[in-house]
What we know:
The protein is mainly alpha-helical and 364 residues long. The chain is built from twelve helices and two strands; from the N terminus they run H-H-H-E-E-H-H-H-H-H-H-H-H-H. It has a two-stranded antiparallel sheet. The longest helix has 39 residues, at 271-309.
Amino acid sequence: MSTASDFMGHELSLAERRAIRQEKRMVRISRAAGPLTAIGLGWSVPLMKMAAGDDPRSNLSALWKGLIVPLVGILAFLAAWAALAPQVQTSLGTVPGPVQVWQQVEGLYADHQRGREDRAEFYERQEARNAKLVEQGMADRAKIRAYTGAPTYPEQIFTSLKTVFLGFLLATIIAVPVGIACGLSSTVNGALNPLIQIFKPVSPLAWLPIVTMIVSALYANASDALPKSMVVSAITVTLCSLWPTLINTSLGVASIDKDLVNVGKVLQLSTSKTITKLVLPSAMPLIFTGLRLSLGVGWMVLIAAEMLAQNPGLGKFVWDEFQNGSSDSLARIIVAVITIGIVGFILDRIMAALQTAFTFSSTR
Length: 364
């Protein structure tokens, strides 16, 4: 027969188990808060905490600041845009409002769907023709031709992403080793610093003619996977975006704790081990800061480079719509502007998440 004290002890044990489970849930949420904040989903953390039974008052305050206030700002912007756009007259008509721009988003998606259907039909007809030639004993006349239709809007976005990542990769391969050399050696830094200060402010519009002529001379036999216009755009991105990574890497390496360097000397570590074991881990936060800045600069530079190099990406899309001059062109250009901004935000959030993962530092 259970006594009253045994019953209370049993109740206390259940309460303790509930408290332990609650604490474990909060720990998991706290661990997820950093990555979620880095990718721009920090507003979901208060929701998860309230769902786990945490104090609603403090979480509602965080939710207000992290989600409601930004949504109010976006809605206010859309309302001002819708009210003011019809009052501005251009050569192509009034400035399109949010509704007209959204209609063009739907139109571009419909064009993409039609483009995919046309591509599929083209290859089906080609396969049928080649199969018929093989049956007739003329297999040597069967050919595989690539689809030559105009790229759709999502395909142009993908082309721009490929180009910017190619340029960003080249910039990183150049900037990080040179930045490490500048940070470790005052002599190297003194020799390269004047060149960095001279070339860093140069506009992509100035680099583009030089890059175009050099690429045309050295890359005469262009491949289909890497067309000449993409190479020109990517190298222009490289030349304009490598400087933030180079400067931040140099600063991060030069500012590491001197005791670490002395430890490396005492242990007689080789130069490669000193860099990989001591220098890079200490300088990683500033290196990632430089990489984030370089990627942002590269994405901005890319649009201008694609306009002039006629690389079939977002820059060429904007230029073609500007030259088209139809009644829908202005709305489509605004769609491209918003797309460029959203993609740039996503790229920055990806780099912020990588920075959080590799440096264990909080990033907003």
